[in-house]
Amino acid sequence: MAGTCEIVPGVLLDARRAVWLAPERALLVADLHLGFGWVQRRRGLLLPLTPDDAPARLAELCRDYRPARVLWLGDVLHARVELAAVHAELRALYDAVPADAELVWIAGNHDRGRAALPPRGAQPPALAEHAACGPHVCTHGDFGSWPAPAPRCGPGGLLFLGHEHPAWRLGDGVATAVKVPAFLVGDGFVVLPAFSNRAAGRGYGAGPPLGPVLAGRPVRQVIAAAGRRLLAFNVETCR
Q1: Phi/psi at 109 (nearest 5 deg)?
Q2: 67 with 29: CB under 8 angstroms?
Q3: What angle do CA 100, 92, 6 make, to 5 degrees?
Q4: How many whole angstroms separate alpha carbon 48 and alpha carbon 26?
Q5: By C-alpha distance, which of 57, 1, 20, 16 is closest to 190?
Q6: Confidence class for position 151, pLDDT limits 50, 70, 90
Q7: Nearest CA to 63 among 101, 114, 90, 30?
Q8: Is there a contact between 69 and 102 (Cβ–Cβ < 8 Å)?
Q9: Percent of the residues in the chain that have a pLDDT greater than 90, as a whole number
Q10: Separation between Cα atoms, residue 30 and residue 18, nearest integer Å
Q11: Mean pLDDT (whole number) for 75-81
Q12: What φ, ψ does residue 88 adopt, rounded to 5°?
């Protein structure tokens, strides 16, 4: 499939800012931040309201991969608020997930709160702090109410997380540069880029990690999602 990169057998990074775990038939996305504009308006910042294409992009990924499980790795909502427009965006995202696929919603720091979540079917979604997927472990990355930031994977398993909104700057070496979403790959872990178009992304190396996972854990590769292409960069040779 165009725009994919298999980093280890059965684990594909997709330029559409998703991960596909082939043996588990699981699709992973992170940091959708639905309702960003509406939440900011409620806070008094009159940002322009533009349609969010996250449901359409997720539906396309689901059509291509036909997952048995879809895992949202946290910060699906920008804030848990009782706003009809935010709930409508979330329902559209529910509809993008095949009815016969299990939906796993992992809690992120933006998802935790008091407002009720619209149900998917008959029941409201349950938010988990982490989820196992074969030998792999999926979490948000801030670790929330985890007792310790030390999830254990099975043999050959990877830790998948979001939270960091990683990005990479591509330039011509003279005057033109653009910042694009990126995956961070290290020994035993993968950080997903934000699925949201509204998350600007933090340029890799621009500051310390937002969460505790990357502290003391070096990144080996930055894999930039430039449109429908993936571009891999070895961190050591780019310094």
Answers
A1: -65, -25
A2: no
A3: 60
A4: 34
A5: 20
A6: low
A7: 101
A8: yes
A9: 42
A10: 8
A11: 67
A12: -65, -40
| Number of C-beta neighbours around residue 202 at 10 A | 17
How far lies 45's CA from each of 39, 48, 88, 109, in Å?
9, 9, 21, 21
- Domain ranges for the chain: 4-238
Beta bridge partners of 123: 120
List, for residues 45-73, the tens digit of each pLDDT value.
555 556 678 899 999 999 999 999 999 99
Task: Give me the amino acid identity at 40.
Answer: Q
Q: Please give the structure tokens belonging to residue 200.
A: 């600007």
Q: What is the pTM of this model?
A: 0.87
3-state secondary structure the chain: CCCEEEEECCEEEECCCEEEECCCCEEEECCCCECHHHHHHHCCCCCCCCCCCHHHHHHHHHHHHCCCEEEEECCCECCCCCCHHHHHHHHHHHHHCCCCCEEEEECCCCCCCCCCCCCECCECCCEECEEEECCEEEECCCCCCCCCCCCCCCCCCCEEECCCCEEEEEECCCCCEEEEEEEEEECCEEECCCCCCCCCCEECCCCCCCCCCCCCCCEEEEEEEECCEEEEEEHHHHC
Residue 33 Cα distances to 110, 127, 169, 207, angstroms: 8, 15, 22, 22
The CA-CA-CA angle for residues 72, 181, 19, to 5°, reads 40
